[in-house]
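User: My advisor, Dr. K., asked me to get a structural model of this assembly before our group meeting. I'm new to this, so sorry if the format is off. These are the inputs:
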Amino acid sequence: MATQAAFMPGAKAETATTGVWSWITTVDHKRIGILYGVTAFIFFLMGGIEALIMRAQLARPDNNLVSAQTFNELFTMHGTTMVFLAIMPLSAAFFNYMIPLQIGARDVAFPRLNALSYWIFLSGGLFINSSFLFGAAPDGGWFGYATLTTRQFSPGHHIDFWMLGLQILGIASMLAGFNFIVTIVNMRAPGMTLMRMPVFVWMSLVVQFLVVLAFPAITVALILLMFDRFFGTLFYAPAAGADPLLWQHLFWIFGHPEVYILILPAMGIVSEVLPTFARKPLFGAPVVIYSGIMIGFFGFGVWSHHMFSVGMGPVADSAFSIATMLIAVPTGVKILNWISTLWGGSIRFTSALLFSLGFIAMFTMGGLSGVMHASPPVDLQQTDSYFVVAHFHYVLFGGSIFGIFSGFYYWWPKMTGRLLDEKLGKLHFWLMMVGFNMTFFPQHYLGLIGMPRRIYTYAADLNWGFWNLVSTIGAFIIALSIFVFIVNVIKTRRSGPVAGPDPWDARTLEWAIPSPPPVYNFATIPTVHGRDELWLQKHGDGHGGAPTRKPAPTTAKEIAAIHMPPPSYWPILLALALAVMLSGLLISYVQVVAGGLLTLYCMFKFALEYHRPAQEAH
Amino acid sequence: MTKRARVTASLLLLAVVVLGAGCGLVGWEWDTPMSTVQPKSDFGKMTHDIFMLISWTTLVIFIAVEAVLLYVCFRYRDRPGAPIPKQTHGHTPLEISWTVAFAAILVIIGIPTIRVIFKTQEAPAATTLHVDVTGKQWWWDFQYPTLKIHTANELHLPVGQTVAFYLHGPDVIHSFWVPQLGGKRDVVPARVNRIILTPEVPGEYLGQCAEYCGMSHANMRFRVFVHDKAGWDKWVAAQQAPPVEPKEDLAVKGKDVFSQSACMGCHTIDGLSAGVLGPNLTHFGSRTTMAAGIMKNTPENVARWIENPAHVKPGALMPALGLRDEQIKAVTAYLQSLK
Amino acid sequence: MADAHAHAHHDPNIGTTGLDNRKVGMWIFLGSDCMFFGSLIGTYLAYKGKSLAGPGPHDVFNIPLTSESAAVLLASSLTMVLALSALQKHDLTWAGRWLFATALLGAHFVGNQVYEFTTFALHDGLTLGTNLFGSSFFTLTGFHGAHVTGGVIWLLGLWFQLKRGRLDARDYTKVEIAGLYWHFVDIVWVAIFTIVYLIP
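Assistant: The format is fine. Below is the predicted structure of the whole assembly, which you can bring to the meeting.
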């Protein structure tokens, strides 16, 4: 194995290698991005199948396609999977691939830590889904309220899988958060001030801060639950004087920032896609950036709007209501900034753009139903009903997923060197639009006529049957649209049109380099003169200024002198050791101790991998 | 895609949207048993007024935003040979205006919101009827301490009388929700939450637990009967009366079976047993539904339930007692005689 | 906006801000760890005085012992600073001694805590499951103790590397970030000591 230290002069630029081992030991942010993307997409499909089964069960009243227990497991796993194993890692795929490219860097600050994050994520996802094999899939809902999740009311291992799985995933997310913050803060190309960063990078920066500051709250909530379930503590034991609401407060202090973690990356993507295809800069980019920062900051102050029905009292209800309405302002005005970007532009309706337009349309709807929820009296009728289910699917699917697909179509040529088929892309978009709205729009109505959420069946005389059936059909149309996407991917893998470096005449630095980029990204680190540096190089600033000078071509000798971090197997080994330790809690304490020692060993090897040997003279 | 094709597609989409919206306004039935938009109480009406205010406001915003979006897509679509458009970076006065406008709309929504929050959480007056609600996995216990009435799964109320529900939870979090009478309030262990409302229209309403509480959350339902004065007095009198003595042979036999079975340990029939783990059965025969509102109170259903509760209601905590068929028939007759 | 970048220094760890990546990373980690301890302290405060039975804080606390622990930890922060200063001056002997002293003081703190926990469990009948105080106290201080233990292992690792001739002034940043972590753990103790032990 290569033992040369990172960034030591004399090491050659790593050539792209093939084979499974090269993927297992990669520390290249681009490959790690692809790993995240493929893994997350598979989990997305699993979450989708869970949804289809649920929708099939709910298509008719008093149905018995699946049992109550199975249904309860399905909605728990669907929510947990979509939040933690689909949307977050799909966003991470783009963070990984694009952030270094967009800031003119050659990799992230800590490449091996980056790989470690991926392997820990994978082990967490496999761990939590392995519960199906043991007939113990989590069944406490994706936000697992106490006291239902205590051992008394949830015997067996269902909740243990959920709890430990989330802890593992939390570690992965936080490590990535530290990595990206340092990368964005400390590895920008010369001339790239913070306000000259692409908006996608800004939104990602806010997201990483949210991750590192919000996840500790759920870590603690889960630790308290774990201690109750394993060591007999009394944190969620009302008989000992405990308050079940402690769980809810800790969870939602994490949970509300989490929803911004889920939506801001998509907002960042849309903020890149619209200017490219409208051929105009993002309207009010500084305001969009400041809105993102404000949302991140104030997002920590609204958590109890998920708790309006628990009886906090009128003062708390009012305070959180006002705070929630306040935060709607920066969230909402962004829509107008995006529409204004299109206004006066020259819009090309590619699949990428269509998905961003879909995002705007659907997120507007989800945001407006969110405004309803901000009013506690109104929310008391809507919370825990299908109305709120409709709301969050409009913002998370209509918002995040549409935004992510927009990113796929936009950046696919950069990552693979080939363009996706536009006809299939448009078919995917329209099928998904129709299917999505058919699935979730009627759920507003179902909620307003009193259908609670998380019920595996319902009576026939409530008028709920017809629109539940429509919703189910819509869900299968969504599935069809995803199938179209998969066909597109397979079809264009080998035979799609070659993209070249800049197929869209885009604005940011990632389009200045070949598609796919060489392992070192930039032959010469660019110097940045403004936001949308590439556009400035190609077309000037549009206000009379001449185009900025393109960087001079790089010599072969210069390229040979670029040093990239070599591959490493310690990330995957450390991730495995951690998985052995944590899963030992369900098997035996011997395994926990052994896994712990193994983890410590791997941590030291990881830390010292590139430390110089004793004999080296200086 | 040709311009004609694109225009056609967009018009089609518009048609679908309009059709859908039309269906929404006209074709969807709002007067359904668990509707939240046909309020039958003061609480419900106050909530509904704000809901309508927000709905109209957001509808206007929605139509405006989507219309501008569609317009922009048409008007500014790329044409062959078009030059690079003007690179506008922003327009501060415009951005400030729409921010202020949006904030103003929220103030308009916020003010009545705060008012209603405080109004609906005021302390009860001395004349308020006090009802203790206990939500357990997976049924509802109702007690009227001032009237010395103890029943389960069917709530009876007098019209026009303000009632304060005190919510108790010995196991997990549930939520007490009767959509036609207003919003929900959670049942939280180690806390006593309170919700106060005045039903204004006599009728039969449906309630359901609205916080996921385990296996049979979907089966934790209840009924609410709002009576005029005569009906209320009649119901109270019947509930306060001692349990009806069985006359019919089968019912008499059923009482014997009941007295000798494990039923005694979990259920209360005044004067006979004092169990508190299961619903109070003193006037079970007067209820229209059973097993927390999931089926009608008929001999077949009662028998099915007694034979194997978990078959009817997944996870039900009442065990199958192993009674023989004729014993079950007898107990059924007895329970149904308890009017 | 500071524009120092790698090429001037040939140190790939120094970035746009002029700071070492690892130092920025450690600061962000400490911010996150603040939220972690904040949540645990919040839980402790939420349950303060709410235990229904069993010993309470002032039935069991040994303030003199805990004060000694606090002093020990504060002293260890001093020795940490001295270790770093010695390293910067290329005085490897004293750097090693001060590093070891820091680890030793940290281990003493953990030892005190082990003694305290066992006394509570065996003499006072206070364990994790006794009451809300037991649950929240042991969890909060236990996690802090675990952080100290992790720090001790880290410091001993650094000391060991130094002894083997594999750590010198070039590795200043590595020792500096260990120092940042160590000071953080010390500050958290000051907070816990005040909130849990001193405030009635």
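One thing worth pointing out at the meeting: Chain B has two domains: 31-77+91-240, 249-337.

User: Perfect, thanks a lot.
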